[in-house]
Every structure is written in C-alpha cells, then in structure tokens.
Known about the structure:
Order of helices and strands: EEEHEHEHEHHHHHHEHEHH
Oligomer: single chain
Strand content: 15-25%
Structural class: alpha/beta
Amino acid sequence: xxxxxxxxxxxxxxxxxxxxxxxxxxxxxxxxxxxxxxxxxxxxxxxxxxxxxxxxxxxxxxxxxxxxxxxxxxxxxxxxxxxxxxxxxxxxxxxxxxxxxxxxxxxxxxxxxxxxxxxxxxxxxxxxxxxxxxxxxxxxxxxxxxxxxxxxxxxxxxxxxxxxxxxxxxxxxxxxxxxxxxxxxxxxxxxxxxxxxxxxxxxxxxxxxxxxxxxxxxxxxxxxxxxxxxxxxxxxxxxxxxxxxxxxxxxxxxxxxxxxxxxxxxxxxxxxxxxxxxxxxxxxxxxxxxxxxxxxxxxx
Length: 300
C-alpha cells in the first residue's frame, strides 16, 4: 500500500500519508482520468470502497487516510483543514496525479473545497457531499457534544459516540428496514472502527471550518450534493456553498448525513454520474483543442 511523507504547514510536523490507488492503469497513464476521494470524520479510506468499485474500470481512484485515521501516522496534536488538504495533495503528487477530479464527504468535503479553492490549477471537478460553508453556533454545539462523548469513551471504554452516530447520521429509510439485532450489529462494527482519540482530533477540525474565504476562488465545476434528512447540515449551509462557488449545481439524495453508509449504491450512483459527465466533458475539450491545433498547423 503506497505511503508518502510530507510536512504539515501548520505544525511543521512530518506525517506519513497512507493511501489506496485503484484503477485500470497506472497513475501515470495520461489517458485515464483520476479522482481523489476524501473521507469524513472518524472513518477512513475504506468508506469509499463501493464508489471505488463503481469507478475502477475507467478512473484511477486515490483514497487517502487523513491524520487520525487508518494507516496515516503523525506525532498527534491539533490539525487544520489546510493541514489535511496538504496531506491529500502530497498523496496525489506521490501518485503522479497532476490534475484530478475531487470528491469528499462531510469533513472530507470541506477539505476538498479548501483544496479546490487554494489550488484550482489541480482540480478538474469537485463533488461535495454534506459539506458546509462554516461552522455556525448550532453546529459547534453539536461538535462539542461529540467531543464529550468521545472523551467519555476514551476514559471509560464506553461506546456512546458509536451509539449516537446512527441517530445523527441515518434517515428514515434506515430505521424502516432495520431491526434491533441488525442495529446492534451495526453498533458493534462502528465501535470497532472508531478510535475515540483519533475521532476527537478530527472533530476539533470540524469546529474550526470556515470556507468562506476560499469559495469564490473555486473554478472547477462543482456538485453540491445534500442529504434530504441531514440533521447536521441545514439548507442554509448548502445555499451558502451554491452562492459562493461560481459553477455549482445542486442535487439531493434521500438519506441522512451518513448517506455513504446508509445507501452505498445510491450514493455511488450520484457521484459516479457526475464524475462520468465531467470526464466526458474534459475529453471533448481536449479533442476540440487537438483538432484546432491540427488545423492551425495545416494552414500555417
């Protein structure tokens, strides 16, 4: 599994970024479009497995672990959105991806938007699910509640955060089709996946999100994908993203904040349709440019 080491801009600490690279060709293959996918708070790169399976026959797919998740290692301590964007770009550089499509979920979507706004030259298109423009007072109160649960879990070995997650993240369709036994099995899986200390580090980043200074610098065609039953991200946050990003469109999925886990197939279909459309548009532009260049050579 590839890794690369880089220095974080905020702390100047070194971090070794772990990532998956999947696709029909090597990362250096010029004719294979590339997409970079960034996971949300408390999870890791495996969040993207269903979407990677959907895309892997026609895209090079890079999915990194952010600091605090999976195999990525650093000395610990506070982090910023800019730090995480730096990690993602380091992985893309190491994999040889000069320009790429970019997608993210929740915290990963804010990192993706930050990267698209600070390095627009690298991003072909942008797909944001459950992103937010800035952490407002209500969201901050929720994130602080998460931190209290995570600290309690770390101190006492409880699973309070895991038990809260489905209540926050899943919409009505999950609750209609589950039963007590299946729900308890899900909770055991979540408790085994989530490191309270690591999730708390990422939740602290959630508290400091403010994309408003960079939204106007995003030039990539952007999908703002909302969840119809999102308890965390309200409509005002989606409207702020749409107003701030010049070339943005809106779409919605019938799920909660945790749509990638609640409806993996539906979520993958939404993302894949947008990425396929943008990859086709890029091909058409490149073919038109080649035709124009050939014509210019003939007539000169």
